[in-house]
Amino acid sequence: DDDRNEAEAILLNENLTHRIKSNSKSTPSHSQPIDMTTNDKEETNKSSNSLHNLYKSCGLSSKSKANPTKIFTMTEEICYYLSTVTENQTLNQYWNSNKSRLLLLSSIVRRYNVICASSMPSESAFSVSGFIQRKHRSSLAPETLRYLMILRK
């Protein structure tokens, strides 16, 4: 239970940090009133008509039939995740099917799921450095060893 509370606190902190960063990026330094001219309105109408025509030519309705999904808080997303996750689903299957419901958690999963869990690259680097820096070549300077490691790649 302590692990769960700690994980929830970490996720809430991550969400707060992400929200602060995104708000600072999207907040303009100066605000000006937005006034749409008639040309802007005509352009908007033309683009919406073009989009409507595209939908019509594809045999689709231009009106969205999808119901808007409720936006959950981080705590609600964690509860929803815990109640819906099953053992017979893979990580990718679960997050592909629930990314629209769990917006905050899915962004965290996308950010950290790409981290490789293997130690293969570091093991390979140590193996190569052990080969280059062996008894017969023990007089290599550290800088020369570094250059040889870079050239080896």
From TrEMBL:
Residues 90-152 form the HAT C-terminal dimerisation domain. This is HAT C-terminal dimerisation domain-containing protein. InterPro entries: HATC_C_dom, RNaseH-like_sf. Transmembrane segments: none annotated. Signal peptide: none annotated. Coiled coil: none annotated. Residues 23-37 have a biased composition (Polar residues). GO terms for molecular function: protein dimerization activity. Pfam families: Dimer_Tnp_hAT (PF05699). Residues 13-48 are annotated as: Disordered.
